Amino acid sequence: MFITRTLKKTTGEDNKKTEMFMTANRSVRTGLTASAVISSWLWTTALLGSSFVGYDYGIAGPFWFAAGCSPMIVFFALIGVSCKKKIPEAHTSLEVIRIRYGRVAHVVFMTLCLINNIFASANMLLGAAAVISVMSGMHIIAATFLLPVGVTVYTFVGGIKATFLTDYFHTAIILIIACYFSIRAFTFEEVGSVNNLYDLVKAAAQRHPVSGNHAGTYLTMTSKSGILFGILHTCSNFGLVIMDTSYFIKAFSASPSSVVPGYTIGGIAYFGIPWALGTVMSSIAIGLENRPSFPTYPRRMTSSEVSSGLVLPYAAITIAGKGGAAASLLMTFMAVTSTLSAQVIAVSSILSFDVYREYFKRSATDRDIIRSSHAGVIFFAAFSAGFSTMLHYVGIDLQWTLYMLGVVTCPGIFPMVFTILWRRQSKAAAILSPILGMATGLAVWLSTARKFGGSVSVSATGGVLPCVYGTVASFLSPILYSVVITLLKPQDYDWSEFKKERLALEKLDTPDSSTLHSLDTSILENGDKHLKSSSVDAKNLKKWTRIAFFWTVATFLGHWVLWPLPMYGSNYVFGKKFFAAWVIVSIIWLWITTLVAIFYPLFDGGVQQVLVIFRRMSGKEASIEGKNGTPQEEPVVNEAGKNEALPKGSLDQK
């Protein structure tokens, strides 16, 4: 909140303006975009889930968790740059749906996006509240309701820019703690080295063979349950990305030249977090579970403790005592508040732009939309806490929501992608295919749960196989429905129709409305006297589209096909040297990610901005906001080389 106020005073960033509150004036640079993308996937699920799938499936679990995240983050670079090119003034993905297909499709996709946000938030809160309750003794419902409070306050005040800034600080803290665990694990006297950890994990497999793994060992990628989880997790995460309006908001908030590199760097860097953290901490839990230093000794962890996400905090307590408990608690808190902020701002954008502005007040002003956004922030924070409480009392935990998410998040993926990339998809296909896909997924999920579990209960519907079948049905069936319905009467949409719709509430910098010009994060050049434009022409956007497509294919093939599948098919069991290399490379990747997330935003204009802000705060340079809070005049050099006085912060500045 202090930073938000300081930025308003020194650089003129006014969060009472809708474009600033919702899209940060579309000028966030590559470094901060990459950091925000990494943070967007630093869910409590990623930290806790990657550890418990490692405990359940062995070395394959954390790898498939990571491989199920990075390809779709990179893929979103393609979606994001396509949106920047075709509809640069949009605030949410739902505005794109409404303009192309009308209000019926708009309501259908709005419902799907809200379902996505509700279940994603519940997934985060259930895991975080369980860990906080066990670590601190706080009642789990108190934790569930208190977690969104701080998020509500800073999101209410700062909007999307506050989300970007807190993403940065929270991500830095989480990654520093993760790096600490990666060192502490091998300095703990009962482990001592990577080779000793290998021996501990190998011995654990002798005591408790893993069902479905080759030779019953934890030390193999040939894990039937592991690869099923990989399929499930990959499909689910495509839904969580494409149907989450917060990803579109962050793409619209980035400058055009920052979308592709930001999402590509962020997606590839993110891979190392669940891979390294999940591998190290699950191996610690597996190997030391029979030692007095483990919190549950002499018994093993119960299935309820594992599914609630307690593998990571128990491993942290084992290697670092109370300090480990505090570190895991802080890490969980940072993760849930950071990612919940993105969910809150996403839902508030839907309620303000897609509900209030579209159906209640078409002539809504900045003040009206900001007020409705504030109401949306408060409403969704309270609703998500209440919904999570309901799930807790019916016996649903982190594992259940992690496994079944894809059933409800996947039906809209391809209809949404086709809306942005395929001009032929018809209105009927866009409306019917996600509805039919949802029905198909639910039917397959519940019927297979009854088949394999004997009943439609919480335990049966939370099984791996029913969730895999249901998720794949929800993921793939809309492709068939959309293509078949489209072939009956295809559309030939003219992409230029998007630009005819005026969506931004502030004046645009260019006649073709292709970009917005912003004061807040533009880097001052020529001795910090003039502003550098962030506009990118159509030719460069086409270039970025090709680059995004290349990295999308390369990341999927690398992380999902060429690397893991040969290891799965070969029935390879890790030797001591290979395990050591596997762990060390994952830790190196984690440390590189930490450097990218913390230092890249600083080198990419952050330091220069801080210096400008410091000079203005100290009075060495005039601030944007005058004594009475009004914009001051600043001489600006025009094309003829003459000085002109333009209002500071004006979007007409050059």
From TrEMBL:
It is a multi-pass membrane protein. It is found in: Membrane. This is Transporter. GO terms for molecular function: spermidine transmembrane transporter activity; urea transmembrane transporter activity. The chain crosses the membrane at residues 32-55, 61-83, 104-132, 138-157, 268-288, 309-334, 340-356, 377-396, 402-422, 429-448, 468-488, 547-566, 578-603. Residues 621-654 are annotated as: Disordered. It comes from Aspergillus sclerotialis. InterPro entries: DUR, Na/Glc_symporter_sf, Na/solute_symporter. The keyword Metal-binding does not apply. Belongs to the sodium:solute symporter (SSF) (TC 2.A.21) family. The keyword Transmembrane applies. Keywords: Membrane, Transmembrane, Transmembrane helix, Transport. Gene3D superfamilies: Sodium/glucose cotransporter. GO terms for cellular component: plasma membrane. Signal peptide: none annotated. Its main location: membrane.
